[in-house]
Amino acid sequence: MNKITETNTPVRIDIRQMSPAQFAELGAGAVAYIKPVLVDGNTAFAIHAANGTPMGLAENRDIAAAAITQHEMFAALVH
Length: 79
Description:
Layout: E1 2-4, E2 10-12, H1 20-25, E3 31-39, E4 42-49, E5 54-58, H2 61-70, E6 74-76
Parallel strand pairs: 3-6
Antiparallel strand pairs: 1-2, 3-4, 4-5
């Protein structure tokens, strides 16, 4: 895997040598997932970063997906 440094120079990273905390942050700024949740008895769709950090809430899945795309992130399918 390559990581871009502040000077835009790629640095090779061996994911087998990453700590659990480093691995959890992998993709946090580029990948998001949508999870159905209940809010006041109604279904809503929570948007989370790849590391699980909550980022937003939408009233339907399409709006949640559009928000992810609008912020130049990629949506991941979660089962």
